[in-house]
From TrEMBL:
Residues annotated as transmembrane: 44-64, 169-186, 219-248, 254-274, 286-304, 310-332, 344-368, 374-395
Organism for this UniProt entry: Actinophytocola gossypii
Keyword Disulfide bond: no
Name of protein: MFS transporter
Lineage: Bacteria, Bacillati, Actinomycetota, Actinomycetes, Pseudonocardiales
Cross-referenced SUPFAM superfamilies: MFS general substrate transporter
Length: 430
């Protein structure tokens, strides 16, 4: 289950990520709560902050993928992580000093988003360089496990710290934890990386990646499904805070607990993904099924009558959510040629995160007009519809195919060799 940790470079990367991700999740909770406090608990303001943070994804992610294919990914990550640490430091100083205003948060959300827009495609492509193709599925699953382990710890710590010390110190802690990633990236042995020949710098490389994806219906269908599910159903950054404050009347610690319960589910789903990575490749059936299940569970969670029931319902939601995310990520990475991986993963991250400038304000508007439960019900319904439509398209194209199972002949008077039974088949995503 932990084969990728045998690679020294990946161990350094993983240990730095565990520390940094705890700080990242602490900042996520503190930022949402700070916006609610500064805006008088206005759900629309929370949606605007999320939209500003994710807007740079639409502008810079694809170009970051081009740069990732051209340049040293390790050094790029060091620069990006330094920029994120500086943003957290500035916001923390403003908050602790009592000078912070809502427009400060909006501005730093946008600047921070510029760095986070470039980070995911570079980091996703760098995973393959650290462990090679044979361990790629396992490494992606382990990344998700570490991310969600931090997601369990970070929000709970942030909720308690906000009550005790305020939001400012949470931002300062995140700035310090980011240093762990930078230090471990610097300690890596560059000679042990599985680097692919870098394409020469030339015009049209971005269009080349778009043509490549357009010619791959399997990848294109996965990207369409990811866009609709992530844009309209993965709205927990804003919807959980709104539900905690406006539906159940809870404070920051109540919001942190909801985030932690969701993270318990995502951590469990991530561990299951690590286990699956030792047995078989991800399949299209798992991708469509997990999206459908996630949508149904999100609708059920949104209808829960009490705070406790709602929180407990978030656990299976988290399992289904991370199963879908991991399966989509692995499917796209394994189906993509290595020399195109940086640009294709940039496109993947664009559709995964780029819809947030639409989804986040929509979540705030739905909550303001129809109540804090409506984002969960509407988002879950969209996820179910996307799974059904994309599953039908994949089946028509042969991406999901099933042959009827034939029962072998029973024993008769003389022994007859049974015919081989055709088994349930999956078309390889590659």
């Amino acid at each position: 289950m932990f084969g990728s940790l045998r690679v020294r470079n990946y161990r350094l990367f993983a240990s730095g990520q565990v520390i940094s991700n705890v700080g990242t999740w602490m900042q996520r909770v503190a930022q949402d709560w700070l916006v609610l406090e500064l805006s008088g608990y206005d759900p629309v303001a929370l949606g605007v902050a999320a939209a500003l943070q994710f807007l740079p994804t639409l502008l810079f992610t694809l170009w970051a993928g081009v740069l990732a294919d051209r340049h040293d990914k390790r050094r790029m990550l060091m620069v990006l992580q330094t920029g994120m640490a500086l943003c957290a430091l500035v916001l923390g100083v403003l908050d602790v000093s009592g000078l912070v205003a809502l427009w400060h948060v909006y501005l730093l959300c946008f600047v921070f988003g510029m760095f986070t827009a470039a980070d995911p495609p570079v980091r996703q492509a760098f995973v393959g360089e650290m462990v090679g193709r044979d361990r790629l599925t396992n490494a992606v699953a382990l990344n998700s496990t570490m991310f969600n382990l931090a997601r369990v710890v970070g929000p709970a710590l942030a909720g308690m710290m906000i009550v005790w010390t305020g939001t400012g110190w949470v931002f300062l802690i995140n700035a310090v934890t980011t240093v762990a990633v930078i230090v471990n990236l610097a300690r890596m042995n560059a000679g042990e990386l599985h680097r692919q020949p870098r394409p020469a710098s030339r015009r049209g490389q971005l269009r080349e990646a778009l043509r490549y994806v357009r010619g791959r219906p399997d990848i294109l269908t996965v990207l369409v499904m990811v866009f609709f599910v992530s844009t309209f159903a993965f709205t927990f950054f804003t919807s959980l805070a709104i539900a905690a404050a406006n539906v159940f009347g809870r404070d920051a610690d109540g919001y942190g607990l909801l985030s932690t319960l969701l993270a318990v589910g995502t951590l469990g789903g991530a561990l299951l993904a690590v286990r699956r990575s030792t047995r078989r490749r991800p399949g299209m059936r798992l991708l469509v099924g997990s999206a459908f299940t996630f949508g149904v569970l999100e609708v059920v969670a949104g209808l829960m009558p009490t705070y406790l029931a709602f929180g407990l319902a978030l656990v299976p939601v988290g399992v289904a959510m991370i199963t879908f995310m991991n399966t989509a990520n692995n499917t796209v990475q394994l189906a993509t040629a290595p020399e195109m991986r940086g640009r294709v993963m940039a496109l993947y991250m664009l559709v995964f995160v780029g819809g947030n400038p639409v989804g986040a304000p929509m979540t705030g508007w739905l909550a303001a007009e129809f109540g804090g439960r409506s984002p969960f019900v509407a988002g879950g319904a969209v996820a179910v519809l996307a799974a059904v439509v994309c599953g039908f398209v994949l089946a028509r194209r042969g991406g999901v195919r099933m042959r009827p199972r034939v029962r072998p002949r029973r024993w008769v008077r003389r022994r007859v060799e049974p015919r081989p039974a055709p088994e349930l088949e999956r078309a390889d995503a590659a």
